[in-house]
Automatic annotation (TrEMBL):
Residues 1-139 form the MGS-like domain. This is Methylglyoxal synthase. One of its GO terms (molecular function) is methylglyoxal synthase activity. It comes from Oceaniradius stylonematis. HAMAP family: Methylglyoxal_synth. Substrate binds at residues 12, 16, 38-41, 59-60, 92.
């Protein structure tokens, strides 16, 4: 799966149900990706679909956003899906902004709500042809 897309998934507490619904809606597509998530989000995803390949980092307020930002800077993330809660003050607001900033700096496709994430994931998968799939297509 080394040529699989790596997608970072993050959701604030008030948006975690939306993330679970997103993951359930797109389980067949997401099962073809490597997933990286902040701690609590990753736990909810793993509970929702234990078959998904999801690596859990620190919880957002404890450095998880920064870990994903570092992975973006290293070129290890293909896309960021970040369900942001715009109505609740966050103790780690600077980390949230820093993560979004790095996604912009490195021109990573980023969705900040479910409607955009639906479009983004579908487009990403449609445009991604892993070597394995290419071989099958020509077999
Ligand atoms: O706080 C977050 C993003 O800013 C998400 O962190 P958790 O997934 O650990 O709740």
């Amino acid at each position: 799966m080394s040529d699989a897309l790596t997608i970072a998934l993050v959701a604030h507490d008030q948006k975690k149900d939306d993330m679970v619904a997103f993951v359930r809606r797109h389980a067949p597509l997401l099962s073809r990706c490597s997933l990286v998530a902040t701690g609590t989000t990753g736990g909810r995803i793993a509970d929702a679909d234990p078959a998904l390949d999801v690596s859990r980092l620190r919880s957002g307020p404890l450095g998880g956003d920064q870990q994903i930002g570092a992975m973006i800077a290293e070129g290890a993330i293909d896309s960021l899906i970040f369900f942001v809660d715009p109505l609740t003050p966050m103790p780690h607001d600077v980390d949230v902004k820093a993560l979004m900033r790095l996604a912009i700096v490195y021109d990573i496709p980023m969705a900040l709500n479910a409607a955009t994430a639906d479009i983004l994931l579908t487009a990403l998968i449609a445009g991604h042809t892993p070597a394995q799939d290419t071989e099958k297509a020509h077999a």
